[in-house]
């Protein structure tokens, strides 16, 4: 499985559909620059294509930075295929600023070499874009969520696991 040549260089991504600016949820966020239709591909999540081994190392470093609350903290690794991941922590990837939401208006979809952020429903100009980061249950307390949606459990976690967290929170009270 060879990386296609055109994906080896930084790629300019069309930004006509989004605006990157300060978010009330966290740091920088991404907002709809115009009304968007359900199912529409909004922006491609680009970055360096790295092997699984490289991406484990990068993820570890990124986690360490985010634990230390440095400005560029956050994990920007996305699984591409069996051999490769994308490290989205590059200056030309605006999609890296999309925050998590427990009631997301976007989702990610991809093929072997690309990942897109797609609208889950019609989105109004000015709305912040968000998708479910689908974080695992491990260390869930370390990822507080400030998405502000009704179904938010207060932590960034895969929708399927939110019931477990709710139960644990009840037991702790
Ligand atoms: C890929 S970054 C997203 C962009 C980020 N807002 C920034 O300014 O770099 C992921 C990090 O943003 C923060 N984040 C994303 N969604 C969040 C949410 N709903 N509530 C709280 N923090 C969030 C977490 O620190 C997470 O590790
Ligand atoms: Zn939330």
CATH architecture of the largest domain: Beta Complex
Question: How much helicity do the residues have?
Answer: 10-25%
N-to-C SSE string, H for helix and E for strand: EEEEHEEEEEEH
Radius of gyration: 16 Å
Q: Estimate nothing, just give the exact number of structural domains.
A: 2
Shape: globular
Task: Identify the strand order in the major beta sheet.
Answer: 3-9-8
Sheet with the most strands? 3 strands, antiparallel
What structural class do the secondary elements suggest? alpha+beta
Top-tier CATH class of the largest domain: Mainly Beta
Number of helices: 2
Beta-strand proportion: 15-25%
> Average pLDDT across residues?
91
Q: What name does the CATH topology of the largest domain carry?
A: Beta-clip-like
Distance between the termini: 51 Å
**CATH level-four homologous superfamily name of the largest domain:** SET domain
Q: Any low-confidence stretches, pLDDT <50, length ≥5? A: none
């Amino acid at each position: 499985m060879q990386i296609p040549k055109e994906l080896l260089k930084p790629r300019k991504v069309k930004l006509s559909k989004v605006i990157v600016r300060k978010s009330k949820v966290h740091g920088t966020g991404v907002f709809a620059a115009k009304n968007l239709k359900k199912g529409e591909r909004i922006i491609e999540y680009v970055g360096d294509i790295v092997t699984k081994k490289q991406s484990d190392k990068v993820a570890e470093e990124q986690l360490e930075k985010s634990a230390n609350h440095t400005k560029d903290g956050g994990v920007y690794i996305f699984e591409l295929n069996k051999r490769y991941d994308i490290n989205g922590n590059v200056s030309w990837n605006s999609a890296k600023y999309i925050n998590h939401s427990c009631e997301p208006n976007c989702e990610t979809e991809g093929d072997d070499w690309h990942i897109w952020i797609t609208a889950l429903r019609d989105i109004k100009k000015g709305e912040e874009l968000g998708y479910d980061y689908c974080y695992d249950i491990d260390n869930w307390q370390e990822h507080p969520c400030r998405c502000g949606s009704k179904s938010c459990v207060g932590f960034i976690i895969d929708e399927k696991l939110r019931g477990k967290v709710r139960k644990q929170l009840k037991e702790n009270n």
